[in-house]
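Dear U.,

Please find below the material for section 3 of the report. The protein was modelled together with S-adenosylmethionine; I have listed the sequence and SMILES used, followed by the predicted complex structure.
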Amino acid sequence: MGRMLRLLRLFRTEQSEPERFYRELAADSVAQLTRYTTLSGQLVLDVGGGPGQFTTAFLARGARCVLVEPDAAELRARGTPPPGAVRGDGMRLPIADAVMDVCFSSNVLEHVPDPARMIAEMVRVTRPGGVIYLAFTNWYSPWGGHEMAPWHYLGAGYAERRYRQRNHKPAKNKPGTGLFPVHVGPTLRGIRARRDVVVLDAVPRYYPRWTRFVLAVPGLREVVTWNLLLVLRPVGRQSDSGPVTSTAGSSVS
Ligand SMILES: C[S@@+](CC[C@H](N)C(=O)[O-])C[C@H]1O[C@@H](n2cnc3c(N)ncnc32)[C@H](O)[C@@H]1O
């Protein structure tokens, strides 16, 4: 609970102290990831890592990290991008098969037009036995509409028009071009249907672990999850006997 309250307080500083906000959020996410893997000496891919706050946190933990980010302005938003950063698309990663120990993505999935394709790419580039950390803001989350929230609950078109009228500029995360509805249930089902990956964990990213039961409740999970974290492990094989089941006892459906 202490962690959740700390994060809640932190979210209030995103606009006023962005450097501190991203540093502390990155430290929290990286600490979360170390529940599932060590980082020192590991090769990590940060998909859609913006200017590299998460990459910096991985490097500080002794990992080697490659940042892939399509937007040159984002890459340079903090000055010189981290060494080895490349421009690239999460749906067509410029990375060979099964070379990464860890594939990480924070709050990118809802910004790509084909989330399933990005997930497939993250699985492709991660070695069997490696770890994928995939977190995203689901559409019906109170923050699902990003800068248009909470008006996205009245429809993406309405939320975008309202934002434009009030701010005299289009939303950066314009629905249909920069923001796409991604839902908890369909995403869980899509991942669980894959035969090349096991779900190590599925939890509301910012809440205590015990809250993961909400992910088993259709409807409720779409609103209260806020941000879904999936931790996956590629198994490097295709089974003919149906989806591979989790070895970590994930209880979501
Ligand atoms: C909300 S920011 C998240 C940045 C960082 N990962 C974080 O959690 O703070 C979304 C990022 O996704 C990137 N992005 C958008 N479309 C992408 C794509 N097709 N492939 C990879 N990244 C993409 C954006 O350029 C932006 O840097």
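For the text of the report, you could mention the following: Residues 150-181 form one domain.

Regards,
Y.
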